[in-house]
Amino acid sequence: MKNNIIDVVEEVLKQNEKYVSEDGKLLKVNVYSDVMTMNEDLIKLLLSNSKIREKFFVKVSDNYIFDKQAFAWFIDSKEFLPDSYTRYTNKIGLTNNGKFISQSDDVVLDFPYKDCVLEGGQSKEDQKRDEIFYNEIIADNEITRMLSPKVFTNIKKYTENGIEENIEKFTNEDNLIIKGNNLIAISSLLEKYEGKIKLIIIDPPYNTNTDSFKYNDRFNHSTWLVFMKNRLEIAKRLLSEDGSIYVQIDNKEAHYLKVLMDDIFGRNNFRSEIIWDTSIPYVAGNKWLSNNWIYSYSSIFYYAKNKEKVFFNKLTFDVKQKSGTTSHKPYKDVWCDIENFAGYLGAKDIKINFNSRKPEKLLERIIKASSNENDIVLDFFAGSGTTLAVAHKMNRKYIGIEQMDNQTEIITNRLVEVINGEDKGISKSVNWSGGGSFIYCELKENAMELIKKISNADNNNIDALKDKIYSDERIISYISQTELNSGNDEFKKLSLNEKKEALIQIVDKNKLYINYSDIDDCNYKISNIEKNFTKSFYRGEE
C-alpha cells in the first residue's frame, strides 16, 4: 500500500510550510482555502508531481487544467486525514451545483459517497457484512482491478437431453446464467457486450425491512443510492443505442430512483412510469392501514438509451366495450391494469404469482414491446428467474446474474422446467412446447487455499499471514495507513481462534474473484477447461 495517492498528496503538500502545523501535521483548512481560490503556488506544487498531475489534471494541448472539484472532494474525504469527517455525513438532499433546490429550478440528487463504488457482496440471506465504500478517486486502481473481467468456473450446459459437463466453448447462440457478485459480473460483461444489450429488466432490492437483501449498515438511503448508481452506470454502457431499461421499485425509494435515473440516462430519455396495480383485494391481501391509505402498486421506470433511436413495438390489446364488442387499441406507452397483464390467470393464480413471482404476462408485455426475437435480454437481479423464463419462451437470448446462493438453484430448476416444456405462465399463449438450452457458470474464486492456511495457522505465523492478506490488494481494498495500524493494534488483542475467524471472514466475504488477466498464472491453478471457456467467452471464439 506504499505510495498511494493519499501518501503522495500529503508528502507533496508538506513541502510548503504554509500547510504544516508546528507539530508537523498537515493544515487541511489552509489547503482547502487555497484550492477554492485556485492559489498559484498550490497549483504549481501539485503540478510538480506526475502522479498528482495524472489524477487531478486534464491535459489540453500543452496546458493542464486543474480538476478543482475532484481535488476538493479528495482532501475533504474521511480517508484523507482520517480524523476528519465528510461534509455530507449521514445527509441526503436535493441540490444543483452545490446549491439547495430553493436556489435553483433544476433538481439533481446529492448524497454522501456518490463518488464511490459499493460492491454489495452478500451471497446468503442471513449474511451480515459491513460494506466498504471505494472512493473513485482514492481507490481508482483498486476499483479497476475489482471491476476487470473475471475467470469463469463450474461451467455446465443444460439442454433437453440433460446436463453437459466440461463445457469449453461459449458461442453467441448460448444463453447464460452467471453466479457471482452482480456488480463485478456486469462489469465483466462489458468486455464482450458493451453496446449490444437490447433490453435490461431488473427488480432490485427495494430497501425495505422485508427485503431479504439486508446489510449491516442498515442499507439507508445514501447507501442504497450508491449501490444502484454503480450498477445503472454500467447498465447504460451495456445497452445498445436503440435499447431500453425497465426498473421495478416501490414507493420507499421510487422518487429518489427516478431522479438518479434522470441523471444517469438523461431526463429526456425517460419514456414512461408503468404502474403495476396490486389493488385487487385478493392479490395482495391488503387491509386498511392504521391512519394511512393502502399502498397498492409498484412502479416500473422505463428509460431509453437514446429516445431518438429507441426500439419499440407498437402492440395492440383488446378492449371490451359496453356493447359487448371488442376493439383494438394502439399499444404505445399505455399499459393495462393488472387483470390485463394477468391475462388468462384466475384469481387463485394471481394471488400466488403476486406473493412470489411477477406474472409472466407482465414480462411478456415488456419483452414484446422492447425487443425482437434473438435480441439479448439482461436481468442482473435474476431472483426467481421469471424474466429469463419468459425470454426463453419468447425466443430471446438472455443473460441472468444472481449472487444469492439460494436463488441460483431456483433459477436453474425453473429454466430446466421451461426447457422440458412446462405449461405454466405464458406457455399456452405463445405455444411453448419446450427446447433450447442455457449455460450456467460462476465467477471463479480463489479463497479456499487461503482459508486452509488460516485454519492451520498457529501463534507463530498468524500475524505474518495476516500481514500477507492485508497487503494483497485483491483481498483487502483501499485502507489508509492509519486505519491499518489501528487494525494491527486491535488484532493483537484477539485470541488465536478470534484471529482466525476474523481473517476467514475477510477472505470469505470478499470472494477473491480471479481476473482474466491472470488466467495463465499457474499460482491460481486454473484448469484447461476453465481457461478455454473463459478465453472463448471474451475472444468470441466459435
What does this structure look like?
This protein is α/β, with parallel strands linked by helices and 542 residues long. It has three domains: 5-84, no CATH class; 118-148 and 175-436, Vaccinia Virus protein VP39 (Rossmann fold); 448-512, no CATH class. 37% of the residues lie in helices and 18% in strands. It contains 20 helices and 19 strands. The protein has helices at residues 5-13, 28-36, 40-47, 50-56, 68-75, 140-146, 182-193, 221-238, 254-265, 281-284, 338-342, 347-355, 360-370, 386-393, 405-419, 448-455, 462-471, 481-492, 496-510, 528-539; strands at 57-60, 63-66, 93-96, 99-100, 108-110, 116-118, 133-135, 152-159, 162-164, 176-179, 197-202, 239-249, 270-277, 297-304, 315-320, 326-331, 376-379, 397-402, 438-443. The strands form five sheets. The chain has a ten-stranded mixed β-sheet, sandwiched between helices. Strand 11 (197-202), helix 8 and strand 12 form a beta-alpha-beta unit. Helix 2 runs antiparallel to helix 5, helix 14 (386-393) runs parallel beside helix 15 (405-419) and helix 16 (448-455) runs antiparallel to helix 19. The longest helix is centred in the middle third of the chain and has 18 residues, at 221-238. The chain is globular and about 80 Å long.
